[in-house]
Amino acid sequence: MTTNQTDDGTMKKEVPAMVAALTLDQVIGHGAFSTVHKGMYNSTMPVAIKRQKVTQASTYINRELALLQETNHPRLVQHIGSCTCNNLTPPEVWIVSEYMAGGDVAQILALNQETHVTWVQCIQIALDAAQALAYLHDQGIIHRDIKSANLLLDDKMRCKLGDFGMARRTETGSHQPKRRMSLCGTDAYMAPEMYISEEYDERADVFSLGVVLMELGCRQQASHTTGFMQRWPQTQFRVNLDAFRAQKLSTCPPSLALLAESCVAFEPDERPVAREVVEWLEDLAATYVPLAESSATKVAHRIPTTKPTQPPTIQGTLERKSRRGFIRWWAPTNVIVVDTTLSAFRSTKALDATKHGHADFTLDLRACTLHHPSQRRFVLVDAAAAAKHEFQASSAEECRKWVAALCTIMAAPATAATAPADNDVSTWLARLELPQYAASFQAKGFHSLAYLRETGLVDEDFFMLGIDDAQHQMILARAASNLQNAD
């Protein structure tokens, strides 16, 4: 084997075109046009060997080899070299890379057991993948096949991104016409804009990463065969967030689940960029406090994490949605969180009087559920009071900080407030002959008719409740309006 030194000092190796230099072992993976073997180089170096016929997708082969030579990052699988085996019929290109002894994330998901890997490790795996993706996007490269099977693990459960067979550079330069890129990737992970043949960019990769985060949260692999995370043309291939929330493990860190939902937003502009995903996961890795684990459920390679002793305190100015009937507006609101209590003040003067308890309203965060429908907005639903409070930050970064802090507080051990026994929403829905929505109303905090009498039901409520039937929306809106008029 000969070696050439690159500008950054790393060694790029050219594997000689001699089959004798490589020893093939068992098959460890398959691609659309390739087969991956475990092997040895010169009987001393464990390697992964990707075999691909030269007659198949030669454009993709050349592009992959070029990108492998141009990229270098600790969270990418290390490229060792390649050779063309002309003595085979038909000839094959063999791409040689480092062997990852821990398998891949898809294999972890196949175990379908929470005890095989801790949440601390899941967060680190997600962070490793996001760092690899951010590096590629900074280099102007779209991977286009982000999935759990392409996230490879070493023997310490650290993750590296592999398989550049579908990767390509983005088009740059205003003088060049923008071309619609081809449909590619793996169905269960593809962004909606790819399905419906629209132009797409790096945010399609972020969507795919979001699906992987959902897989980690549920410990299931997305598949059209099993139906998990299946998407349909009727909904323009949107992710069913209610199904995800119902299937994610109860121990899943709330911040990880919220990040996953943000990444799979239908509109690409509402998804975070890869660098923002990295920052979010870095915050989560630094603040996540794992639940107590028995010695039987601990794994050999545990990744250390910083554990805060108390929930953080956060303070700032947000916009809060106010509405009366069909009139809605955003009002500046000073918000302060101390321990587990959120206090809101409409004026700075009131804020100065916090020590006297003059808040316009307060929330016990441990009795609330948190939703993050867009990059700048989050919603707190107070089940006990059957009320929801929508807040909007000045930027996506500020919103991310608020959500991360709130998730940490809300995930802290405590006895959450129970829902009121009065459940007249179910009776109301039954009278409207729409009892199928009772569970959705309860899950979103609508336990009594008090909230409906105050605000009615509007389009945003139907979206949050997952009610997309136009006739049912009309029936519910009219019935809620009748409740308001009855008062």
TrEMBL record:
The keyword Nucleotide-binding applies. The keyword ATP-binding applies. ATP binds at K50. Residues 22-289 form the Protein kinase domain. Keywords: ATP-binding, Kinase, Nucleotide-binding, Serine/threonine-protein kinase, Transferase. Residues 420-486 form the SAM domain. InterPro entries: Actin_reg-Ser/Thr_kinase, Kinase-like_dom_sf, PH-like_dom_sf, PH_domain, Prot_kinase_dom, Protein_kinase_ATP_BS, SAM, SAM/pointed_sf. Coiled coil: none annotated. Residues 311-411 form the PH domain. One of its GO terms (molecular function) is protein serine/threonine kinase activity. Belongs to the protein kinase superfamily. PANTHER family: CENTER DIVIDER, ISOFORM A, LIM DOMAIN KINASE 1. This is TKL/LISK/LISK-DD1 protein kinase, variant 1. It comes from Aphanomyces invadans.
